[in-house]
Amino acid sequence: MLDETARAQTSGRSLVGVGATVLLVVLLAVGYSVGERKVLVVSAVAFLAMAGFAVPGARAAGKQNARRLVWGYGLAAGAMVTSASLFLLPQAFALGQQSGGVLGAKAGGVGVALGLLAAYGGHTIGHRLSHVDSAFDSTAAQITAHALSAGLVIGTIYAALPTVGYLLGLSIVSHKGPAGYAAARRLRTAGKPVSVLLLPAAGVGLTAIPVALLNPTFSMEMKAVLFGFGAGVFLHVAMDFLPQCETGTEVGEVAQLSENAHALLDKLRVHAVASTATGALAVVAAWLLI
Questions:
Q1: Whose CA is closest to 65, among 257, 269, 279?
Q2: Rounded to an integer, what distance in angstroms lies between the CA atom of residue 238 and that of residue 80?
Q3: What does DSSP assign to residue 174?
Q4: pLDDT digits (tens, 9 = 90+) for 41-78
Q5: 13 Cβ partners below 8 Å, 6+ apart?
Q6: Which tens digit of pLDDT belongs to each residue from 211-263?
Q7: How many angstroms separate the CA atoms of 50 and 57, rounded?
Q8: How many CB atoms lie within 10 A of CB 36?
Q9: How far is 176 from 27, CA to CA, in rounded Å?
């Protein structure tokens, strides 16, 4: 009886997730009609990455996929750290030096500090709320909040500096794939509907596209703060995605399914370093070639 209930819950459809998907499609159509190509592509890729990786993630529930999890997290973390360092930090500091405002050259640094602290605060409070009973799944709630806030930052960055290319946005949302994979695995294991992940999958576009359409005007100093803030937020997220091959972590929990978990964790640490380096080098290579 319990197995039947779990199957029914898992195979169910989340109305919130379906509604978010429909709204995203509408926003994509509106954005396309006015020529907001970059934000549209980034939003669509974020949705397809999380929704697409959720499928194998759901199938992997209860199975040993520690190495795959490490490589997914490592590639995304390496790409995000490198993207923030190559594209956001230099822009933040350069805009600050050119602004001549009250903060001057320090504007970018102020933004980075605010972004790191805001991301840490949101992550910590989100973890606290995950222990509060709610009708909405806590896992989905946390990554939805992150997706919506990331969308705000991405939309603001492209509105403030339209010359920013696709590579930045695509690298920033690269973590959506492994995040969807891990979240779907957890939801399926708990017997909850995986389709609820359609909401956080659409989250980036739900906020990035409206901000880009509004196209707010920013002073040079405010742009420096915003770019620094974005860099701080994404650096914190990247640090959170660095594979932690220790007992008690998500990778450790998956590794425990192996008969020799300790030896497996030792091997996974090498894969963690290799995956993050590969993610970073991929962004550098793309930057040099594009």
A1: 257
A2: 6
A3: G
A4: 999 999 999 999 888 888 877 666 778 888 888 888 89
A5: 193, 195
A6: 999 888 888 899 899 999 999 988 998 888 888 877 767 676 666 656 676 77
A7: 10
A8: 23
A9: 20
Q: DSSP letters of 255-282?
A: HTTSTTHHHHHHHHHHHHHHHHHHHHHH
Q: Token pair for residue 153?
A: 């930052």
Six token digits for residue 222: 């405010």
Phi-psi region of 10 (alpha: psi -120 to 50; beta: other; left: phi over 0): alpha
Q: Is the dihedral of CA 37, 40, 42, 44 positive or negative?
A: negative
The contacts found for 104-107 with CB under 8 angstroms, 24 or more apart, are 104/221, 107/221, 107/224, 107/225, 107/228
For residue 8, the number of C-alpha atoms closer than 13 Å in the C-beta half-sphere is 5
What count of residues does the chain have? 290
Tokens of 50: 């999380």
Dihedral through CA 279, CA 66, CA 116, CA 157, nearest 10?
50
The whole-model pTM stands at 0.80
